[in-house]
């Protein structure tokens, strides 16, 4: 796709990068077939090809309006189009650039600006979110049903193993997950403890930066990434083998630290190293399976599981099918899930900012997940877990919790 950049962007790094991405697009339209929003709305501008044209027009100097912003806002950034694209178009990165430029050129209404600011403040503060969650759970009987359903079910949180092994790995502490589902990281730590690895929560680590990044708060996202790099780096220098990110949405962000910090002379080299060390739990468990298997109880009754593979896991990290392999190795029966490549509608803050589209996507996803009448639904991302769990009576659990629940109590 030939592009003639306008003066305002011609000599910028973002402009050059966007132009290179646009040139790789051959207009084939394969992407529209797998785009969740195009399937719902049937509008070319709500599919990848249409959004690419909107970004191209903006880069060439065409007028940018709230309509452009709306169509880019409706994109889930699920990257299903990247998996489908025969030309390897880096659509996710192009949309990031497009949104950033639109944000500079089209002021949002005051209500939207306030809403986005409040979301960042509420979700990035672990103490505030933990307090709000505890208060909401205590008042659940008094809450409106729609709000009460959004609260994740409380699960027993095990004990974090003491540090006792020479092998160590770090874990992203995160922002939302510690308050809403603390059992996930504890389960990861207990699984690793069985194979001789101590999982460390580094003081000072927190949000991966994805929330701020996707809400166009670039400086805030950069500060959060730097804080994590500073917190992890001493442990990396002492030999930590990996940085385990138990939320696949955060995993995609940490894998991009090198790219996102490439122009930061103080952090670029360390950011590349951090990105190279980032691992999803499935990338840790699979190689250790032979050592872990003796500790796993296979005789705890038949269990039918529907596996929801988050977009960030299958399209962002390209690890589709790997969780299913481990669940089957546990002796669980996996139920069929139609259109497994489609997004559930969570997509970070998307379910809060685009509730109508998110609800439609969730309805379709739950119909597919529940068609095989599973006992529970397994996933790999806290956002998907909360979004799906708010609209189903079936338990929705992170797959690492399911694995940990089957560990024998004896060593």
Overview of the structural elements:
With 411 residues, this protein is an alpha/beta fold. The protein has three domains: 99 residues, Orthogonal Bundle (Fumarate Reductase Iron-sulfur Protein, Chain B, domain 2), CATH 1.10.1060; 118 residues, Rossmann fold; 109 residues, Rossmann fold, CATH 3.40.50.1860. The chain has 25 helices and eight strands. Strands 2-1-3-4 form a four-stranded parallel β-sheet. A four-stranded parallel β-sheet has the order 6-5-7-8, sandwiched between helices. Strand 7, helix 24 and strand 8 form a beta-alpha-beta unit. Helix 5 packs antiparallel against helix 7 and helix 12 packs across helix 25. The longest helix is centred in the middle third of the chain and has 20 residues. The termini are far apart. The model has no long low-confidence stretch (mean pLDDT 91).
């Amino acid at each position: 796709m030939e592009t003639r950049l306008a003066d305002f962007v011609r000599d910028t790094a973002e402009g050059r990068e966007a132009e290179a991405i646009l040139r790789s697009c051959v207009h084939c339209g394969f992407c529209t077939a797998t785009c969740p929003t195009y399937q719902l709305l049937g509008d070319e501008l709500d599919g990848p090809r249409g959004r690419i044209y909107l970004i191209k027009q903006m880069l060439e100097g065409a007028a940018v309006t709230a309509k452009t912003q709306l169509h880019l806002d409706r994109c889930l950034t699920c990257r299903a189009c990247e998996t489908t694209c025969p030309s390897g178009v880096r659509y996710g990165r192009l949309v990031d650039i497009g949104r950033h430029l639109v944000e500079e050129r089209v002021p949002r209404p005051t209500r939207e600006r306030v809403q986005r600011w409040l979301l960042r403040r509420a979700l990035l503060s672990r103490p505030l979110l933990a307090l709000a969650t505890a208060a909401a759970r205590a008042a659940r009987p008094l809450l409106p049903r729609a709000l009460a359903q959004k609260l994740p079910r409380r699960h027993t949180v095990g004990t974090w193993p003491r540090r006792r092994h020479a092998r160590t790995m770090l874990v992203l502490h995160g922002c939302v997950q510690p308050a809403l589902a603390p059992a996930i990281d504890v389960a990861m730590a207990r699984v690793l403890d069985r194979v001789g690895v101590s999982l460390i929560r580094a003081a000072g680590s927190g949000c991966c930066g994805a929330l701020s990044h996707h809400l166009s708060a670039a400086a805030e996202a950069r500060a959060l990434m730097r804080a994590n790099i500073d917190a992890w780096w001493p442990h990396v220098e002492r030999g930590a083998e990996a940085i385990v990110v138990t939320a696949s949405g955060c995993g995609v962000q940490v894998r991009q630290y090198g790219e996102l910090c490439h122009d930061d002379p103080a952090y670029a080299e360390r950011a590349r190293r951090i990105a190279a060390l980032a691992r999803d739990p499935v990338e840790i468990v699979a190689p250790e399976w032979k050592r872990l298997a003796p500790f796993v109880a296979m005789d705890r009754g038949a269990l039918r599981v529907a596996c929801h593979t988050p977009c960030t896991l299958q399209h962002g990290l390209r690890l589709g099918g790997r969780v299913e392999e481990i669940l089957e190795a546990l002796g669980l029966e996996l139920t069929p899930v139609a259109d497994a490549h489609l997004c559930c509608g969570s997509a970070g803050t998307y379910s809060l900012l685009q509730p109508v589209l998110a609800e439609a996507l969730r309805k379709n996803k739950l119909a597919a997940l529940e068609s095989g009448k599973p006992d529970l639904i397994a996933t790999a991302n806290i956002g998907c877990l909360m979004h799906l769990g708010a609209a189903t009576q079936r338990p929705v659990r992170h797959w690492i919790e399911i694995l940990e629940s089957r560990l024998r109590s004896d060593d």
